[in-house]
Design a protein that fits this description.
The structure holds two protein chains of two kinds.
Chain A (H helix, E strand, L loop, with lengths): L1 H13 L17 H5 L16 E7 L5 E7 L1 H5 L3 E6 H7 L20 E2 L5 E7 L2 H9 L2 E6 L25 E9 L2 H7 L2 E9 L11 E7 L4 E6 L6 H9 L7 E4 L15 H14 L3 E4 L2 H7 L5 E10 L5 E11 L10 H4 L13 E9 L14 H19 L3 H8 L8 E2 L5 E2 L4 H11 L2 H13 L3 E15 L10 H7 L7 E7 L5 E5 L8 H13 L6 E4 L20 H28 L6 E4 L2 E4 L6 E3 H10 L13 E6 L16 E15 L6 E11 L6 H20 L31 E4 L17 H18 L10 H9 L20 E11 L3 H8 L5 H4 L3 E8 L2 E10 L2 E15 L3 E10 L2 E13 L5 E12 L1 H4 L2 H25 L7 H12 L4
Parallel strand pairs in A: 1-12, 10-11, 14-15, 20-21, 27-28
Antiparallel strand pairs in A: 1-5, 2-4, 2-6, 3-5, 7-15, 8-13, 9-10, 9-12, 13-14, 16-17, 18-26, 19-20, 19-25, 22-23, 23-24, 26-27, 29-35, 30-31, 31-32, 32-33, 33-34, 34-35
Helix pairs in contact in A: 1-17, 7-8, 11-12, 11-20, 16-17, 19-20, 25-26
Chain B lengths: L9 E7 L2 E7 L5 H8 L18 E4 L2 E4 L12 E3 L13 H8 L9 H14 L5 H8 L10 H22 L1
Helix pairs in contact in B: 2-5
The chains are: A alpha+beta, B alpha+beta.
Chain lengths: 1003, 171
């Protein structure tokens, strides 16, 4: 009753001329002034307790290897080092992270007896500062026995593939089949069947701020206090507490005021929360860890890559009658919580925007020797829509009709909402036909087609792509249980819903505070909430102060809290509105008694609580708001307190999976229709976006500027995924894109402004009518661009990212061999990083003398910069420790070198292997000495090397250059030495150690 | 050139946003870490530590500089400007900062400091830039939130407002 009164009051208020509601306006953000003047408070900007220690993590250079021994003695002896933890110590104070499927498999945040991906933590060093910790990490000696590795999701299922976990026989973590309707009959009856095989690559939205954790442990209460730029979902709080072996109330998890982007990625910080908390417990002091970029790219988290076969049964008119999905999801080396959620997030939406009643799905989850996967903007959507919308284009080609016609023929009818999909999603609202029509009209589709015709007439490569996408938001916390069978679900108990929380507080001077557990990373939640609450109370946004930090020890939160699944606008902002309305309802009663009117006559406007019929009869908002503090005795009996109100809201539509595995995986479903024109350069095969149109129906828009910001940001990331970005691995599991010069992100010169068109069909299921909007373009844009490129080049299959080299292979076939006379370096194994070079040097002294020096280890330390130690094992076998820096990575390597085919004093062949935390590999070289006719020696050398491990991640471009520079410097120094007549001289071993340490040695 | 002891700490003195500052640094300490950890100037952010993302961009002796590719000991005696020095006063924003706020040219704000420094430096020398010039300038900065267009708009708007206000005051 009072709620209704308040609602009427507000809507009445909104009707008056300039008193438009704040919601729906693009007001300036309250967040910006601080961020623009360097006063942001990101995790690494905050002070720490005096005595806080700093952690560095030693990581595996191998994709798959047994750990035979770890020697941490030298590291522990280094001044400033407090503790060094290996898997054994971490295991002693934690338990395994929970794994999302039923299998006898453990998942630790650090390798225990085996490493399974490049970058997997092997040891944690805790010292007085980060530099000391890194110094010490380099002193740790790890003995590995490499195993063969597998990186391909199909390859990992092969009989001969190496098995990662005994508990996942055949590397298969889960295999489930689903059937909705009668797909077999539909396929049997249909006149057409179309099929597509897709390999969706690995990529990540890579926030510019990396992970950060500050952890402390109170031994007296056995309680942890952790600050981390974690983003939720807070279901992970349970996982962390269990791993740290404490009840939830002894894990206080807090977030900093600002977070430098996440896009899902910072969910993946949680294994490091466990690791650093364990380190803090062992060290007995607070420990801080800030991830660096190499660590982030190589080993933080990634979206899943997926191999999909999708078939459609299609009627003669293009109507899709049934779909048959076969998805193989690659979750990397460990199945980390909440995986395999990426695969099941879309489970209700496997028919996209289309009315398809018969669906068959086989979902397999596999493990490979790559970084474990987790949340990433779009979460499962890009993988699904790439297959579905590529197939739609394939159907159009096959039937000889326009892709747009196939889309239109299959869209869900406007009068069908709320529409229950075959696999169980309840699509809340929409008018897809109208949205498509508006986009075609507003985006000038006909003109774009004319543009294509014109370009093609001129012989240019121009293509058009389309994509229609349903964007789910507000995840059902129960969708992941679809991976279990109905019987297994009955055993574990029901999981469903998505509790959102909001708290409204009124202080003794009547000013308003809002707290939510939404953990924004730049989305402007504080601003939007100030608008929502200002509207309810008749105040201005600047009167409302919003706090979005979370502290699990004090704040209202649930497992669904956090910033993911685009749940803010739909769920959190709506819950804040409900909480404000509840307080407003009580304030209305109080004001009514003071103003001597009925509560239904009360309106909140311009800072006053007033009588609707007699606006002069009013009282200042702050006065009514403060009354609960100062004079609770004068409140009407039924008003209750107005000091603080917390509302929990969960939509009843989010039910658990039913016995037929139908699941309403998300609450809201926005609609996106994109089309674009691309032109591909005939010479370089570079793809340029000529025009991009994106139509969004995300329900009620709360802040147009921020909605467009989300669309543009998602579009730019999706463009990166389409054209540039891939977490690339060599076949041996080496990670090849460890810097932002190798993992290419789009910049200002690549990202055009998309034309954004809006339509607003409010969601009937959310308090504000809003739906999520942030992830849609990550789902629609990659496939839209791929469709356009396929159209431009007349290709049947395209694989992301659409880098020129890949397109060249598709268009022109494999690169032909070079003309004769130019030797080509052929990798010893596919995916190896091959480096070759040759050179010469002039030295004083006859070849015989040079030869003796070459074999004398005593002279080496003065010759090789960074050479700590040389041991002569035999006349032709040496070992050495060398420290070397290449580009951004400096590391210690242990080199092992043998000499062959000795022809004193003329020639020798050398073979070496080296290994360090930064890499491993092998090198072979030949050195020849000849008298130069003036009493000196002419030395010529050539080398051929293969590398793997972390150093491979920084890119061949740096390695090649660094090699030449280092070897050049070495010979220059050597020549100086020889010329100076010093006791030293050139040493064969010095050269080789340098070389081998640079390239490392493959075993 | 001075030869510095690797294991020793050396005094580093320079001007930071118009004020003299002094602290000690090991030779290997990066300028980005020195600013943030020794001087508490945390407005300059570290995003990649290999010179690609541009978040740590500052101005050293009138030159745009990646603080993560500079050693603290290199800037002894220099004049340094960081994002903390852009605003005319703590409670006011510069025209460029205001244009950023109006155009929603930032979301998480982590990359923003570097972008502001590049633009502030560039616009003071090129008061009437074209969109292409701004895009070229900012291609050395990575932003994952905004899709860049609002940043370009803000820069052009700030330039336009600065030029028109100069014309007005000249008139």
């Amino acid at each position: 009753m009072v709620q209704a009164a308040v609602r009427t009051a507000i809507s009445c208020d909104q009707g008056k001329g300039d008193e438009r509601p704040w919601v729906g306006r693009s007001i300036e953000r309250v967040e910006d002034a601080g961020l623009l003047s360097g006063r942001g408070r990101f995790i690494d900007d905050l002070g720490v307790q005096p005595g806080t220690l700093h952690a560095a993590i030693l990581r595996s250079p191998h994709a798959h290897a047994d750990i035979l021994a770890i020697d941490t003695e030298a590291a522990k002896r280094l001044a400033g080092v407090a503790v060094v933890l290996t898997g054994e110590q971490v295991k002693a104070v934690t338990s395994s992270l929970v794994v999302g499927v039923k299998a006898p498999v453990e998942c630790w945040p650090i390798a225990t007896d085996r490493v399974r991906y490049v970058g997997e933590p092997v040891a944690v060093v805790v010292a007085t500062d980060r530099a000391r910790a890194e110094d010490a990490a380099e002193l740790i000696s790890v003995e590995y026995r490499p195993r063969s590795a597998v990186v391909d999701p199909l390859g990992t299922l092969a009989r001969e593939a190496p098995v990662l976990h005994d508990g996942f026989p055949g590397n298969l973590a889960s295999d489930r089949t689903f059937r909705y309707g009668d797909p077999e009959q539909a396929f049997a009856d249909a006149p057409h069947r179309f099929s597509i095989d897709v390999k969706y690559p690995r990529n990540s939205c890579t926030p510019i701020e990396t992970y950060g954790v500050i952890a402390s442990h109170d031994a007296a209460e056995d309680a942890f206090d952790i600050l981390a730029n974690f983003q939720g979902p807070f279901s992970i709080h349970t996982v962390i507490a269990r791993a740290l072996k404490v009840p939830g109330n002894r894990l206080r998890l807090r977030t900093p005021p600002d977070s430098g982007g996440s896009f899902g990625v910072k969910q993946g910080v949680f294994p490091y929360i466990v690791l650093i908390a364990a380190a803090a417990r062992v060290a007995g002091r607070p420990v801080k860890w800030i991830e660096d970029r190499l660590e982030h790219l190589a080993a933080s988290v990634s979206a899943t890559n997926r191999a999909t076969t999708l078939s459609a049964a299609v009627a003669a008119d293009g109507k899709i009658l049934a779909l048959d999905w076969d998805q193989i999801e690659d979750c990397g080396a460990h199945l980390r919580a909440p995986e395999p959620a990426t695969l099941y997030r879309m489970h209700g939406n496997m028919t996209g925007a289309y009315d398809i009643r018969h669906v068959k799905i086989r979902n397999r989850v596999v493990v490979t020797n790559k970084t474990p996967t987790g949340l990433n903007r779009g979460f499962g959507g890009p993988q699904v829509y790439f297959a579905l919308e590529r197939l739609v284009q394939r159907i159009a080609l096959g039937l000889g009709v326009e892709p747009l016609d196939v889309i239109r023929r299959n869209l869900i009818e406007a009068n069908a909402f709320p529409y229950r999909t075959a696999s169980g999603a309840l699509l809340d609202s929409g008018n897809y036909q109208e949205a498509v029509a508006r986009a075609i009209e507003g985006g000038k589709f006909a003109e774009l087609k004319a543009r294509r015709d014109e370009a093609r007439a001129q012989g240019r490569l121009y293509g058009i792509g389309l994509a229609a996408v349903v964007e789910p938001s507000v995840s059902n916390m129960g969708y992941i249980t679809t991976v279990l069978t109905a019987a297994e679900r009955r055993k574990t108990g029901p999981k469903n819903g998505a509790q959102a929380t909001a708290t409204i507080g009124l202080d003794p001077v009547g000013s308003v505070t809002v707290h939510v557990a939404s953990v924004p990373q730049g989305q402007g939640h504080r601003t939007v909430l100030s608008q929502v609450v200002a509207d309810v109370f008749g105040l201005e946004p600047k009167d409302i102060r919003v706090n979005t930090e979370i502290d699990t020890a004090k704040d209202a939160w649930s497992i669904a809290s956090g910033n993911y699944a685009s749940r803010f606008a739909a769920a959190v902002a709506g819950t804040a509105k409900l909480a404000a309305e509840r307080v407003a309802g009580r304030l209305a009663r109080i004001a009514a008694s003071q103003l001597n009117v009925e509560p239904a006559d009360i309106v909140f406007t311009r800072g006053f609580v007033a009588s609707r019929h007699n606006p002069e009869n009013r009282i200042a908002f702050s006065r009514v708001a403060a009354l609960s503090h100062w004079s609770p005795g004068s409140l009407p009996d039924d008003a209750g307190q107005t000091i603080r109100e917390t509302v929990f809201w969960t939509p009843p539509e989010l039910t658990p999976p039913d016995d037929e595995d139908r699941i309403n995986s998300s609450l809201c479903h926005g609609f996106i229709f994109d089309f674009c024109g691309v032109e591909i350069d005939r010479t370089t095969l570079e793809t340029r976006i000529d025009r991009y149109v994106t139509m969004h129906d995300c329900g009620t828009i709360l802040h147009p500027g921020m909605v467009n910001g989300q669309i543009r940001g998602g579009f730019a990331q999706a463009l990166g995924a389409a054209l540039y970005e891939e977490y690339a691995y060599a076949d041996d599991g080496s990670f090849l894109t460890g810097t932002l010069a190798d993992y290419l992100l789009p910049t200002t010169t690549e990202v055009p402004e998309p034309q954004i068109i809006h339509m607003e069909t409010p969601s009937p299921f959310t308090p504000l009518g809003a739906k999520g909007v942030g992830e849609g373009n990550c789902m629609s844009t990659p496939v839209c661009v791929a469709n356009a490129v396929a159209d431009a080049l007349g290709l049947v299959d395209v694989t992301l990212p659409l880098v020129p080299a890949r397109l060249a292979e598709l268009v022109r076939g494999a690169e032909p061999p070079p003309p004769s006379g130019h030797p080509i370096a052929r990798p010893a194994r596919q995916g190896d990083r091959q480096l070759r070079g040759e050179g010469q040097a002039s030295l004083k002294g006859a070849p015989e003398r040079v030869w003796r020096m070459l074999l004398d280890p005593a002279t080496l330390q003065s010759v090789i910069p960074g050479c700590q130690r040389v041991d002569k094992i035999s006349e032709t076998h040496f070992r050495a420790d060398v420290t070397l820096g290449i580009g951004p990575v400096t590391g210690r390597y242990r080199a092992d070198v043998e000499l062959f085919d000795l022809e004193p004093p003329r020639a020798v062949r050398l073979r070496g292997a080296a290994e360090g935390a930064l890499g491993f590999g092998s090198a072979e070289g030949r050195i020849m000495l000849a008298p130069d006719g003036r009493g000196g020696t002419q030395l010529t050398y050539s080398y051929d090397a293969a590398i793997g491990g972390k150093v491979a991640s920084i890119g061949g471009r740096l390695l090649d250059g660094a090699t030449r520079v280092i070897i050049g410097q070495f010979f220059a120094a050597l020549a100086r030495k020889a010329g100076g007549g010093a006791a030293g001289g050139f040493s064969l071993f010095a050269w080789l150690a340098k070389l081998a340490s640079l390239f490392g040695g493959r075993r | 050139m001075n030869r510095l002891e690797a294991d020793a700490r050396h005094p580093v003195r320079f001007t930071l946003n118009g004020k003299a500052v002094e602290a000690e640094a090991e030779p290997r300490t990066l300028l980005s870490d020195f600013l943030r950890q020794q001087l508490g100037a945390t407005g300059t952010h570290v995003g990649c530590e290999h010179g690609v993302c541009g978040a740590c961009t500052i101005v050293v002796d009138d030159m745009l500089t990646r603080a993560c590719l500079t050693l603290a000991v290199q800037v002894d005696g220099c004049d340094i400007r960081t994002v903390e020095g852009i605003a005319p006063s703590p409670d006011r924003l510069s025209a460029l900062q205001r244009a950023f706020r109006r155009n929603h040219a930032l979301q998480c704000g982590f990359c923003t400091a570097g972008i502001l420094m590049s633009l502030d430096h560039y616009l003071s020398r090129h008061p009437a830039p074209t969109e292409e010039e701004i895009r070229e300038l900012l291609s050395g900065h990575l932003c994952r939130c905004t899709g860049y267009t609002p940043i370009i708009r803000a820069a052009l708007e700030a330039a336009r407002l600065a030029t028109s206000s100069e014309e007005t005051s000249d008139a």
